[in-house]
Design brief:
heterodimer; A: 373 residues; abc type-2 transporter like fold; 2 domains; B: Rossmann fold; Alpha-Beta Plaits; six-stranded mixed β-sheet; four-stranded antiparallel β-sheet; 14 strands; 29% strand
Chain lengths: 373, 312
């Protein structure tokens, strides 16, 4: 009885999803679209930096160095300068985002293994992109010292930058895109859960809920069947978005697709359970969507570790970020993409999703009433 | 239960929404096999009563028993015995007629063997066979109501609760719908139906008249018709409004209702007051055809009873 009624709800729900183009889009394609948009918005270093170079050294090493940092196209060599005034002028005029000054004797010092310094002038109008450019430049500088000269990565330093990076293991080029896209993938996967919440509200809005609660169907069967249908449809969405991340953004995928999809299912369980909780209190799709966006979409960017790491020493920051499913799924998605971790390395955030989901699902079930409001 | 044949019973049933009393101390007894009509103007509390009987709304005071189960404590036990059709179209517009019926058959756990025959019969019964593959949203209003009824009948419930099933439906479909209800009545199904239409109320075995949350009268239509004081005379004056104004307060005139181009006047004694009324109108220079003796219908009785209640 329980299985067959759950299946009846499931089948009806799948028909709704497939037949309603808007819902179908929301669940299967919208996450990928949102991922495309947000990735460009959030990946600052994807925009190229224009570089003006003042080369006092004019040695083979300095020319090699310039060729090396501009090799992958993220830095475009804009002009060669003849003096400091030119550097300042080109930054002011916006001809260059970054002026690189190579001191006399740079090549000799570097080859001899003597510590040497480069100077970088950055347009500070946009601190974020300035910091980004510096970070990328210092990463390339270390890489150059290590690979071209066979010296320690710390040999060449950038003047006036405190944060010289060591070699980043999982993201060698420190492209924010690589860590941003998997994080955003986690963020955009809230959409199937939103569609699910809207479907719950829609039954109330159209009146079909009133007919349904006058039948022997139990809350568990009704919500369970719906949840299964949207989880399944959401998997399609997750797959499409993952393909976009891997083939469009070329983010390295070091993990296992099956693990990612299984984790996505856990994430759906947690977010859809929150949807069940929300849907108990609303009778219109409009309200459901507003609450869902405010409670899920917005916090994703601020407290879930997407844009800056969670401060694990601050109680407040832990208390706000841990109850949010995105926090755990962002960590999972990044770890699967960039580190290739499997279940043994991910059981903690996975367990967090299960626990959060179970709490909200239970609360949602307890509050669910087969009554008209 | 007080009476073995009683299938629905409410005692001092109340439901408030904030400060509004939607249903006020309702005592109702409905017997097995009846077609019971709940009539009353909009906002009288009919929908609230039906929702409480369907166990999808809890009363704020009092209690109700349906098919022997308390609607609050045993709300889920009731639902297998019940077919409830809300006022709003409550099926799935993007599912076909057949898919909707199969869905409810699944929900009620109708076994495969029984199902095919039953759906077949319901399609014939509701005259929907031709449309079985059509999406429910593409059906006319009347057909949607019939599909709704077919879906509530899929588990052959003992009790049917229908909330204004014919509101907004064309007269032909309305008649057809009531023919179906009559067939169900004959097979012994207990039907509680709310309606704003008096001709439908006449087709019920008993009628409960609701007004402002209270049950004013509850009896067979023929007896409700008799409850109106006095005798009814019909007139056709040349100026309806002026005539009505003139006759208001005339000795022996109990109540005046306009009806198309007719005046329906309840008087204490028809033989004496008829000519008096004609004379009064003639004095004022108004010619008037009639009087004709008339049978009070539910409509007149209804308006008269409500008028009295409102005047209190």
């Amino acid at each position: 009885m329980f299985i067959s009624r759950t299946f009846a709800i499931f089948r009806k729900e799948v028909r709704h999803i497939v037949r309603d183009v808007r819902v179908l889009f929301l669940v299967t394609l919208a996450p990928a679209f949102l991922l495309l948009m947000l990735s460009y918005v959030f990946s600052l270093d994807y925009q190229h930096s224009k570089v003006a170079v003042l080369d006092w050294d004019k040695s083979a090493v300095s020319r090699d160095f310039i060729a090396q940092i501009t090799a992958d196209g993220d830095f475009t060599l804009k002009s060669y300068l003849s003096d400091y005034a030119g550097a300042e002028a080109s930054l002011l005029a916006g001809d260059a985002d970054l002026a690189l000054i190579i001191p006399r004797g740079f090549g000799e010092d570097a080859r001899a293994g003597r510590a040497t310094q480069l100077q970088a002038l950055v347009d500070g109008m946009n601190p974020l992109s300035a910091r980004n450019a510096i970070a990328q430049l210092s990463a390339r500088t270390s890489a150059f010292a290590a690979m071209r000269l066979g010296q320690s990565g710390a040999l060449i330093t950038l003047a006036k930058t405190a944060d010289v990076h060591g070699r980043a293991w999982y993201n060698p080029a420190i492209k924010t895109l690589y860590s941003m896209v998997p994080g955003l993938l986690a963020v955009v996967m809230f959409m199937p859960a939103m569609a699910f919440t809207l479907a719950l509200a829609r039954e109330k809005e159209t009146g079909s809920f009133e007919g349904l609660i006058a039948t022997p169907v139990r809350g568990f069967e009704y919500l369970g069947g719906k949840l299964l249908a949207y989880t399944l449809a959401g998997m399609v969405g997750a797959l499409v978005a993952t393909l976009v991340a891997v083939f469009w953004f070329q983010v390295p995928f070091r993990g296992d697709l099956g693990t990612l999809l299984a984790m996505t299912a856990l994430y759906f369980f947690a977010t859809m359970s929150a949807g069940i909780l929300i849907a108990n209190f609303v009778t219109s799709q409009q309200t459901a969507m507003t609450i869902f966006l405010l409670a899920f979409f917005l916090p994703s960017f601020f407290i879930s570790g997407l844009t800056q790491p969670i401060n694990t020493t601050s109680l407040t920051s832990m208390l706000t970020s841990m109850p949010v499913p995105q926090t755990h799924f962002i960590a999972i998605a990044r770890a699967i993409f960039l580190k290739g971790l499997g279940w043994d390395g991910l059981w903690e955030p996975a367990l967090a999703l299960v626990v959060l989901g179970s709490i909200m699902f239970t609360a949602g079930m307890l509050l669910f009433k087969k009554k008209v409001s | 239960m007080a009476d073995a044949s009683m299938i629905i019973e409410t005692r001092a049933l109340c439901r408030s929404f904030g400060a509004t009393r939607a249903v006020d101390s309702l005592d109702l007894s409905i017997f097995r096999g009846e077609i019971f009509g709940l009539v009353g103007p909009d906002g009288a509390g009919k929908t609230t009563v039906l929702r409480m009987l369907a166990a999808i709304l809890n009363p704020t005071a009092g209690h109700a028993t349906v098919a022997g189960f308390d609607t609050v404590k045993k709300s889920e036990a009731i639902k297998a015995h019940l077919g409830y059709m809300s006022q709003q179209f409550s099926l799935y517009g993007d599912l076909s007629v057949l898919e909707n019926m199969n869905f409810f058959a699944d929900i009620f756990g109708i076994k495969r063997q029984a199902r095919a025959g039953r759906i077949d019969r319901l399609l014939d019964f509701s005259r929907m066979r031709k449309f079985s593959a059509r999406r429910a949203a593409q059906l006319s209003g009347g057909m949607q109501k019939k599909l709704g009824l077919a879906c509530t009948l899929i588990h052959e419930p003992e009790i049917l609760l229908l909330d204004e099933p014919t509101t907004g439906v064309d007269p032909v479909s309305r008649r057809e719908f009531w023919d179906i209800l009559t067939e169900l009545h004959i097979t012994g199904t207990t039907i509680v139906v709310s309606t704003p239409y008096m001709d439908e109320a006449e087709r019920c075995s008993r009628v409960g008249l609701m007004y402002q949350g209270r049950l004013m009268v509850c009896d067979a239509p023929s007896r409700i018709r008799m409850m109106v004081d006095g005798e009814l005379l019909a007139f056709r004056p040349e100026n309806l409004q002026r005539a009505a104004a003139l006759l208001n307060g005339q000795p022996g005139v109990l109540e005046i209702q306009t009806y198309g181009d007719l005046l329906h006047i309840f008087v204490d004694a028809a033989a004496r007051r008829g000519p008096e009324i004609i004379e009064r109108l003639a004095q004022a220079g108004l010619s008037c055809a009639g009087p004709w003796p008339a049978q009070p219908r539910m409509e007149e009785a209804f308006i008269s009873l409500i008028g009295k209640q409102a005047g209190k």
